Each structure stands twice: as structure tokens, then as C-alpha cells.
Amino acid sequence: MKANTAKSELGKMKAHSKSPLQSEQASEHTKIKSPVQSKRSTKHAKIKAPNSKERILHCAASEFLQKGWARSSMREVAKLAGVTTGSLYFHFKNKEALFDALVKDVYDALLANHRAMYDTFFTMPPDIKKRREFRFEGRKKTVDFVYENYRAVKLLVCGSAGTRYADFFSLMMEDTYKADVRALSSLKDSSSVLHSGIDLRLYSAIDKSFWNCLFETVRLDIPYEKALKYVALLDEFYEAGWHKILCENRPIEK
Length: 254
Prior knowledge:
By secondary structure, the protein is mostly helical.
């Protein structure tokens, strides 16, 4: 009887205890935080230990952000990830391939989404209120995409110098410039009253400055909810400014 009781008590103790290693692993997972967390619910998320490839990617991202791509080394990434250089090269043949794995899909999607936003805009009927609403929703969707893919976008914004991805903002602005040309042309052809001295270079510079401000949320690691408020304020500021520059005698549409 006593033997059975002792075994029962021992079983209960094992069921409710954790080894020092388990506690340490759980602690390590709780240390990693990012501005994305407020956007995603973690209520039902299960903590899962990363495999070696995931650990390499995590450590590589930290290395690239801290030192920049050019000054980072595969040897240091392997050291941070706790793997041999042989294991690292098994997964990624060189530093370029490692950076590709971190950003390529997001880079392609970011450019495609930006281009598609303008393509859709110019298919809309010339309703000022609806077009303004669409512009704001397009900007908000960009923020959503950025924070859903925060690590990759952070690398593009802050760690891509020296890589083939460093041109992502320039390529986005090429599409913005083309859209500006179309928009300004349509305004001149419509009944809008334009300032006589409006210049496409000024028009484009102002539009570019908005997108630069939007990506400032990433440079400053602003949390998602605050980033939405930040972009909403920017939207109001720029829309009022555009009205002042482009349409002297037309009331602002709310």
C-alpha cells in the first residue's frame, strides 16, 4: 500500500515539474519581442523550439541589422546560431543566398502590391471622395503588409545596402512617379483649378516624401497600433497639402 502511494506521489511531482533546461528554453522564447506582436494574437500559440535553419535565419537577420550586409560574415552567423560552418553552407551556399531567403518573397510582393495599388486607382471612376478613401486604404494595407512581414521589411529598409535588394524603395518610387505623371495629366485635362506654377518634379518629390515617412515607422520600430495612427495623421496632412497645391478654388472633400 505504501509503495503504491509513493509511486503515485512521484508521478504527480514529475507531471508538474520542469527541468532546468526546459525552463531555460521557455525563458529564451519570451525574450524575443517585436513591434509586430500587437498585431497578432498569441493566445493559442504554441512555443516550438526552432530548428537549425530557422535559428540560422534568425541569427543572420540580427547580424545583418547590426553590422549591415557587407560587413557581416557567414562564420559569425554560424557562431551565433550554434552550428558549424559546414551546417550553415549546407542550408545556404553563400551570404547572398542567406539574404535571399530572408527577403526575396517580401521584396517581390512589396513591389507588386505597390504597382497593383496604382493600377487599380486608375481604373476607378473620377470620384474625389472614393479615390481619397482608396488612397488611405492603400496606405493602410501597406502598413499591414509591412508589419505582417516585419523582419524582412526591416532588413530591406535598414540592412540591404550592398545587396541587389537595396533598390526596393527606388523601384517603388519609379512606379509612384509614373502614377504622378498620369494623375497630374488627368488633373490638367479636368476642371480642377491648378496652381499655374505646378511642376512635376515638386509633385513627385512630395509624393516620395510621404512613402519615406511611412517607412520611418520601421526605422524607428514604432509598434503597429501607433504606426496606424501615424499614417492616418500623415494621410490627413498630405491630403490637405495636395488640395492647397493643386486645387486652389475647390473645397476639401471629407
